[in-house]
């Protein structure tokens, strides 16, 4: 009956119900916020997360008529999950304090309250990560009316509520950005280059300003200048914590060699940069929770690169970076894709004629999509398997990996693929994107260890 009611109400009706529960939840959090320091911290996190969600929900409500059937169905499913979580949280938080007025009983009450708030903020932050990919897809594919809705939201909402609308506008503008991304070679002169172990990119430091950059060098034999500038233009305002790609400052065209250099900015505070390969090889072994976080952010990055209308053809542990703050032990780890030595437009043919044999280890012999690429990389991230002798040639390593995928890896990852290659190949970008969210990103989001 609940699902039938949701179907009748539509996306807009479900959004209204969610916002009603959300407002009640925020009010209850504010009332309890003065209980103690930890409760106050959890209350603030819930409010910050909810303000962003509420702003995005209001925009979804306005854009329902512009959605495709796949998008509308996916939104209904995701919103149904949010409604159930909000309803459950408000029911628990709204329960009266039945422990009495004694100091000991009140302590028990606040202990229970903390657990509820911790669960609520975890649920909301997790749900938001599942929701945002489909939200940005709607923003990208919508008509010009979408821009009117976003501009209106930035004008009518205060800054914290208008931020998602501003991000949405920047994302749409990325596909029609006429600003130059060309950088002069002299910008590299003031940078101190540092090697990132087991990585195809370099870390550059601007000491006077304490700024960090990633320098990604690509060959003109494999990447055309026009394509490089288009990629840089679209990644100009990329938010790494959302999209899994770094903001691109521009492209340097070298005069003495046939190479281009992408200059990516590292977010302030995240000066500890390591490749995924180094992380996998270093000890002690990373927890399953950490590996799952890397896996989630990797599949998210692959999705957004595709949403930018590109296919990353060089994904490997050497082109996946982890960014951490050296001064904050519990700060969020960011996972970002680099290594754009091979990429193509989403609807263009793949050109790997210049690919080194060792890179072919991570490429499917017949399927060219990055969905297979992400799955192959997850094989490296999720299970801890022993390395292979260095004397093996790339083809032998590839054959060994194929054997593993058909035997041992099934214990870790199962044997059900993303979908029928023919079905995926015959669909447009919107349908494939919706399937990717539903079949890969959503299941990854619910895994907890």
UniProtKB/TrEMBL annotation:
Keyword entries, A-Z: Coiled coil
Keyword Coiled coil: yes
Coiled coil: 53-80
Keyword Coiled coil: yes
SUPFAM superfamilies: Protein kinase-like (PK-like) (SSF56112)
Name of the protein in its database record: Het-s domain-containing protein
């Amino acid at each position: 009956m609940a699902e039938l009611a949701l179907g009748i109400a539509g996306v807009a009706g479900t959004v209204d119900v969610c916002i009603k529960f959300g407002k009640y939840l925020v009010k209850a959090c504010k009332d309890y916020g003065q209980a103690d320091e930890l409760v106050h911290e959890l209350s603030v996190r819930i409010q910050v997360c909810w303000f962003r969600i509420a702003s995005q929900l209001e925009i979804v409500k306005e854009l329902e008529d512009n959605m495709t059937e796949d998008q509308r169905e996916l939104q209904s499913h995701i919103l149904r999950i949010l409604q159930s979580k909000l309803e459950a949280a408000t029911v628990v938080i709204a329960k009266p304090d039945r422990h009495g007025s004694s100091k000991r009983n009140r302590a028990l009450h606040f202990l229970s309250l903390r657990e509820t708030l911790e669960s609520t903020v975890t649920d909301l932050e997790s749900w938001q990560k599942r929701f945002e990919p489909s939200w940005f897809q709607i923003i990208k594919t919508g008509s010009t009316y979408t821009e009117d809705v976003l501009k209106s939201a930035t004008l009518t909402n205060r800054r914290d509520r208008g931020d998602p609308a501003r991000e949405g506008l920047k994302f749409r503008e990325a596909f029609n950005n006429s600003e130059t991304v060309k950088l002069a070679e002299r910008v590299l002169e003031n940078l101190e280059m540092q090697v990132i172990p087991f990585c195809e990119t370099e870390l550059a430091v601007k000491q006077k300003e304490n700024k960090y950059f990633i320098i990604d060098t690509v060959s003109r034999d494999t990447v055309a200048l026009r394509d490089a500038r288009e990629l840089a233009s679209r990644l100009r305002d990329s938010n790494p914590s959302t999209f899994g790609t770094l903001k691109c400052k521009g492209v340097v065209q070298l005069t003495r060699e046939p190479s281009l250099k992408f200059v990516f900015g590292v977010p302030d505070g995240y000066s500890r940069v390591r490749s995924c390969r180094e992380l996998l090889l270093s000890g002690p072994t990373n927890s399953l929770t950490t590996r799952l976080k890397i896996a989630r952010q990797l599949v998210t990055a692959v999705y957004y690169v595709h949403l930018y209308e590109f296919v990353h053809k060089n994904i490997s542990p050497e082109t996946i970076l982890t960014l951490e703050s050296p001064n904050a032990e519990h700060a969020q780890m960011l996972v970002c894709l680099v290594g754009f030595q091979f990429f193509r437009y989403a609807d263009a043919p793949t050109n790997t004629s210049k690919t080194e044999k060792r890179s072919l280890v991570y490429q499917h012999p017949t399927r060219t999509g990055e969905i297979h690429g992400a799955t192959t990389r997850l094989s490296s991230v999720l299970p801890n398997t022993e390395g292979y002798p260095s004397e093996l040639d790339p083809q032998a390593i590839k054959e060994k990996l194929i054997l593993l995928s058909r035997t041992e890896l099934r214990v870790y990852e199962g044997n059900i693929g993303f979908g029928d290659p023919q079905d995926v190949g015959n669909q447009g970008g919107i349908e494939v994107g919706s399937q990717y969210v539903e079949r890969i990103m959503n299941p990854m989001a619910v895994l907890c260890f």
